[in-house]
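User: I'm preparing a small set of examples for a lab meeting where we compare how different chains pack in three dimensions. I only have the primary sequence for this one, and I'd like the structure in token form so I can line it up with the others. Please keep the answer compact; I'll paste it straight into my notes.
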Amino acid sequence: QVQLVESGGGLVQAGGSLRLSCEASTSNFRFNAWGWYRQAPGKERELVASITSAAVTNYLDSVRGRFTISRANAKNTLYLQMNSLKPEDTAVYYCNRYGPFDFWGQGTQVTVSS
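Assistant: Understood. Below is the structure token output for the 114-residue chain.
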């Protein structure tokens, strides 16, 4: 089974930045589209950003212009650079395939204080 290990979360003040990383233990990493998802307390998980195998990106409207998704195929790693963070970005962030697997990693907590 593929393992997804997210890291890089933390507590940051509004306006700050964080960079999330996700290592995926699959030899098919480079062939798949991937996404960053988040789940805030009491809310459903939502797709925040995605990136195709050709590095075409797409973003949730509320994060466009502030977040940047990227990938390093040689490292089987997905990144999310988050700038100008807002309190409403507070959530547990997960990576997964775009069209996710049936399982999820442990996620990484991002907390933005006002």
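A couple of notes for your slides: The chain has no helices and ten strands. Residues 10 and 94 are 14 Å apart (CA to CA).

User: Perfect, thanks.
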